[in-house]
Each structure stands twice: as C-alpha cells, then as structure tokens.
Amino acid sequence: MSLPTLHDVLTLGESLALITAAENGKLRRGSALELSFGGAESNVAIGVSRLGGNSAWMGRLGRDAIGELILRELRAECVTTYESRDDEVPTALMVKERPFPGQSRLAYYRRGQAGSQLSPAAIDEQAIASAQVLHITGITAGLGEVPTSALHAAIDAAQAAGRTVSFDVNHRSTLWKSGEEAGAVYREIAKRVNLIFAGEDEAELLVGETDVDRQIDALFALGEASIVVIKLGDEGAVAATREGERLRMPATKISVVDTVGAGDAFVAGWLAEHVQGKGLQECLDTAVACGAFACTGLGDWESLPTRDELAWLNAGDADPVMR
Prior knowledge:
Layout: E1 7-12, E2 16-21, E3 33-38, H1 40-50, E4 55-62, H2 65-76, E5 79-86, E6 93-100, E7 103-109, H3 125-129, E8 131-137, H4 138-142, H5 145-160, E9 164-168, H6 179-190, E10 195-199, H7 200-207, H8 212-222, E11 227-231, E12 237-241, E13 246-249, H9 262-274, H10 280-294, H11 307-314
Parallel strand pairs: 1-4, 1-8, 2-6, 4-5, 8-9, 9-10, 10-11
Antiparallel strand pairs: 2-3, 6-7, 11-12, 12-13
Helix pairs in contact: 1-9, 6-7, 7-8, 9-10, 10-11
GO molecular function, one term: ATP binding
Protein name: 2-dehydro-3-deoxygluconokinase
Keywords: ATP-binding, Kinase, Nucleotide-binding, Transferase
C-alpha cells in the first residue's frame, strides 16, 4: 500500500542571501546594492509552485534576519518550509556584480555558514516521504562531507518510501578542489537517483564523454536512472529514457537579460509536468520554455514563470500592447 503524498516536489539544499549590484559596473566602485536571496533548490521549489504544483523546501538557516527573510519569501511563494535553524553561525551569502552589460559575476561566502552545517540529523524523513519527488543538487555535496552525508540520508528516506529522486548536477567549481574530486562524489549520487539533469560539461565531468549521446548512455550505465536530461544552454536540450526514447529540442528564441536561474527554471518546468504523469515531450516542452522565460528578467527566482506567462511566451509575435 502506497503512502499518501502531500507535496509534488520537495527540494533539499542551501538557500542564502543574495546581494546584487543595482547597475552595471565594478562593485569596488561602491555602487548601490539590492538584497534578496537565492539557492538552486529553493529556486526549483518556487518554480514548481508558480506552475501550480505543491512544493516544499528543506534546509538549514542561521537564526538571523536573513534566515527570516528567506522563510518569509518562500512562504509568500506558497512553498512549504522544513527548516532547521543554527544558533552558532549565520545564513550564507552570495554577492553578484555586473561588471559589463549582459555579464554577471558571483562571489560566495558560504563555507562554515549555516547551510554547510546541514547534517543527516536535520533530515525530516517524514516530510520526504510525503513528497512525490525529492530534488537535490550537487551544490550541497560541494559544501562538504557532512552535507553530502545528509544528501545520502535523504535519498535513503525517499527510497524507503518509494519516492522518486531527482538530481541536478549543478556543478560549482569554486566549491571543489578539483573537477576529479567533484566528479567522483557526483557519480556516487547519480548511481542512486531516478532522474539526472546535467549540462553538457557537467556530464563530461561525470562520465568522461564529450558526445551527448554517449554521455546519456554512460549516465544510464552508472545506476538505475530512468530519465537523463542534458541541458545545452542556447542550443536547447536532449532528454532520454532508459527504454530508448530520445528527444532533442532547440532553445526558445528570446532577448536575454540575465541567464542566472535558467537551469533551475528548466528543472522546475520538467518536474512540474513529470509529477502530473506527462510524457517526455511535454516535460521537455515546458522545461525549455521555463528556461527561456527565466532569461527575460533579473534575479535568481524572480523571473520564474507562471502558466499564464508561459502562454505569453508561446504566443510569439502577438500585439505588444495588452488592452
């Protein structure tokens, strides 16, 4: 007898403060700053919620004003939160500057902060069992051995409850000593999951192949994944099933404002359809559209689309004036 589900998707990982330069130029010039928050896993949770899904986020925050801001914003986006709080260290921080038009540069202040203290003891197994999909990323693994052990504890809980585990590699080179170290850790996670999302360069990091079709075959060979998706940026994406179905879709043509958050939007779009039992084509259609829409505005999650906004994107050359 299957357990009842409360959430479509539960994401696990670090959310952190985001300080952004308000205008183009070097941060050292003392430009005005704007405060928000970010984090791949909370981005995905918000993305699923905006598409009509019931989503949740689990992670560790400092007992500070930034932690309160993050919780307030997530709840405002109708995301259920399962947070643990740290009394000793603060919520982490990332700083984004725009040194040149159309280009962003990120600096992270996260090692030793609350998110990197996520441990197996903080994993709410009952909450994970209440979700149809557990979604994780390689970012958490990059924060250290203890957060990595928390990921595996979460996978254990999801598997015990018969839930799907989704893994987006989401490699951050600044969190690792080397690509070889990261690849080895990612492979151990990829062996245990049901859905794998990776950029072309990330797939190469895991399996050593440069050809997309060979990457897909090698990722399937790692473990028991039933679906592999390779994100190709402005060239679209390729999705495949273990049974042999394989689809390639070009990217949606848009005027790019900022690409930050596009990969998370892509995953959110895919998962929002996947939990509804949609097939490979429909999942890929929505994922590509969401990734494109996220590039039309600024912010990690602020430009994630609703269903109505996806309809606008797909309308093409409609009258630009809404009457």
